[in-house]
Design a protein that fits this description.
2 domains, 332 residues, 32% helix
């Protein structure tokens, strides 16, 4: 359990644009242990998906992006190996479940062909053996009548079934690390619960590391052991799930927590809302990136970028957190 499957160290992802270079990810550091589920949370535009795409090196490195830092998958630094070698690792050692199964699956290929492709490419199975394995994977992810479904096209399946097919494709080579990028988007609540239970069960069976990217804190509380909170391309807080939910230190984390509807709350009161929006990448503040939206920020917060600092059981990027388990209070 103590073996780290993934270690990301000071990852920087900089996009080349007509307006000059824009840093979407700036110094992200995180680790995932074997058998662990790490939740990566934050608002849309905070860099969660870009982080996962960067770990997989899915952007065009010749014309689109520049990377810095290290991404260690076991003993291999994925940022230092040739791109062709990276193609061999994707799908075999590290796999990803994308947000929208309908757009991620090829509409003109049968389900069997899409599951068989990584089996033939990475495990060099014969076509008939890969076909049998595809049926087994559909059965493993809970699709009824897999012998029939395997020969259907994506449009013939429901949203929940398509998502299960995506999971089957991701897991067919038994990767060491699975990245699930909002795998329950656009699914109804019942199917969401089934998909999350499935990922959790497979995580336990295969003892693989999992990064679950989501904006739903309730999902994180249900299935993850640790959680990292992202804001504008940086990790601003990281802790064990129970510790973070009970004692959030960063004002941004507190704002996310306060935005969760309470079952015993007064329905006449509006839900808490973090003021403002995530800035554009060409409008990043000089100091603390959350300072323009933070109710506790002062001039010092806007002048210098705070470092990610150990605070008890947390890592937190905030000079006003106080490094205690108490919530931040406004300046008098």
């Amino acid at each position: 359990m103590d073996e780290y499957v993934l270690r990301v160290e000071n990852l920087v992802t900089e996009f080349k644009t007509d307006r000059g270079p824009l840093k979407a990810i700036d110094g992200v550091t995180l680790q995932v242990k074997r058998g662990e589920m790490l939740g990566l949370v934050g608002e849309s535009g905070c860099g969660k998906s870009v982080t996962s795409m960067s770990v997989m090196r899915l952007y065009d490195e010749k014309t689109t992006v520049r990377y810095e830092g290290s991404v260690w998958l076991g003993d291999t630094d994925l940022m230092s190996i040739p791109y062709k070698k990276m193609q061999d690792i994707r799908g075999r050692e590290i796999a990803m479940i994308f947000q929208d199964a309908l757009s991620s699956l090829n509409p003109v290929l049968r389900v069997s062909d899409q599951i068989m492709e990584p089996l033939i490419t990475h495990q060099h199975l014969k076509r008939e053996d890969a076909y049998r394995k595809a049926v087994e994977m559909l059965r493993l992810v809970g699709i009824p009548s897999p012998e029939t479904r395997v020969d259907q096209y994506p449009h013939e399946l429901s949203g929940g079934m398509r998502q299960r097919v995506m999971i089957a494709i991701a897991l067919c080579c038994r990767p060491r690390l699975l990245i699930a990028d909002e795998p329950t988007t656009a699914l109804d609540v019942t199917i969401q619960a089934q998909i999350l239970d499935l990922i959790l069960d497979l995580n336990r069976q295969m003892h693989m590391g999992v990064i679950l990217i989501t904006h739903d804190l309730a999902v994180v509380a249900q299935v993850c052991q640790r959680v990292a909170v992202m804001y504008l391309g940086q990790i601003v807080e990281e802790a064990e799930v129970a510790e973070l939910f009970n004692h959030p230190l960063h004002p941004y984390t507190q704002g996310l927590m306060d935005s969760i509807p309470k079952l015993d709350g007064d329905s006449r009161h509006r839900l808490h809302m973090i003021r403002g929006t995530v800035p554009l990448l060409n409008q990043i503040p000089r100091g603390c990136r959350f300072a323009p939206r933070c109710p506790y920020a002062d001039a010092a917060c806007s002048a210098a970028m705070p470092e990610l600092t150990q605070a008890g059981g947390h890592l937190v990027r905030c000079r006003k957190a106080g490094f205690t388990d108490k919530k931040v209070t406004p300046d008098e």
